[in-house]
Amino acid sequence: MYGINGSDFPPVKEDTFCKYVLYYEINNSSVRIWDLIILIPNALFLLFLVIRFNKAQLKLRATSSPIFLTFYMLVWGNVIISLVRCAVSMTVNAAMPLGGLVDKILWVTVRFFLLATEMSVVIFGLAFGHLDSRSSIRYVLLATSLVSLVFTITQGTLEIVNPDDMFHIDIKDYDLFGHGGMLFWFISSLVFALIYFLILLLPWIPLRDYLALPSKLSFYLYVLLLALLDTSQAVGAGLLTWGSMQSGLCVVDVTTWLYFSLYTPLVYHTFLSEFFSVSQPSIMFSYKAQMDEPMDDDQVSLPHQQSFSSLKTDSDYIYQSNSVYDSTLFEAGGTTPMNPVYSASLQSPDSIASNHSDGIPVFLNAPST
């Protein structure tokens, strides 16, 4: 057998480490080391989310913005589906036709969730960051889900109908997941890399005047990391298709592990960690101004415009620098009190429970608006 899809390059030998690690089974069981090294970081991150769940729940209840909850749910969904894929792949026999099919379907399913999250984060920051409402979030999620669905259906179809010879294991006579083939992987990775590099250039081109561009450095570092990752994937896939087979496979292995193991923690660290770890009330997340008219269900409450003309929606806290907020408005002696619910969210669950007086939480005695 020769090369990838009939190319003149000989395939990577199956005892080569970068290919061996993909199919090696521990003690001749169905537990492959490749699934195990992806499962471990996802399991550790899930444990982290579980430990921080109570504090996160309090913070989410204290903000009226749906953006934080949306990001948090995306993170949970990604890590859970990744763990499910690893667990199922370890229990099915990939050498059997049904087992191999299930394994590939699970891979493209995980890719669907990760890609939808990947696009949602960027699109919301560039086009909808100033519309912090449930409807705008639904539109973004719907659009990114449709694009991601088209991508994963294409990838899954290529994976099943035309599996890449590079990922065929002769000694076990089955095909590993090959990302839809290296040509597809090369083209798609190159397109995503170009898009991310273009985003990095937006602050320096005239188009920036028509976009609510994020100002936080962490957002651009996030985009830069994805641009470098996609570039590396394109290089690895290109080497596998037209050049050095062994080095190309090693690059593909490393970038695949990074994406499926560390992308979700990267999203959490970049867009949620600051919100969940804040210990001082520098921003009032969910202050509800008193209004004569009731708000629509889809409308997110905003701070009083006369008092907080510089304060924007909660999504700006994710994408914009802290300098866009005037934290002096919330210092002691300010004219406007902090939301008591958010104040309570800064405490641990145990401290809130211990501060009850006659069954009434102490934070209810905070100054009212």
From TrEMBL:
Organism: Diatraea saccharalis (sugarcane borer)
Pfam name, any one: Tmemb_40
One MF term in the entry's GO annotations: G protein-coupled receptor activity
Family designation: Belongs to the UPF0359 family.
Protein topology in the membrane: Multi-pass membrane protein
Chief location: membrane
Keywords: Membrane, Transmembrane, Transmembrane helix
Domain of life: Eukaryota
Protein's name according to its UniProt entry: Transmembrane protein adipocyte-associated 1 homolog
Keyword Oxidoreductase among record annotations: no
Keyword Oxidoreductase: no
Coiled coil ranges: none
A GO cellular component entry from the record: plasma membrane
Subcellular localization(s) per the UniProt record: Membrane
InterPro entries according to UniProt: TPRA1/CAND2/CAND8
Transmembrane segments: 33-54, 66-85, 105-127, 139-158, 182-207, 219-245, 257-278
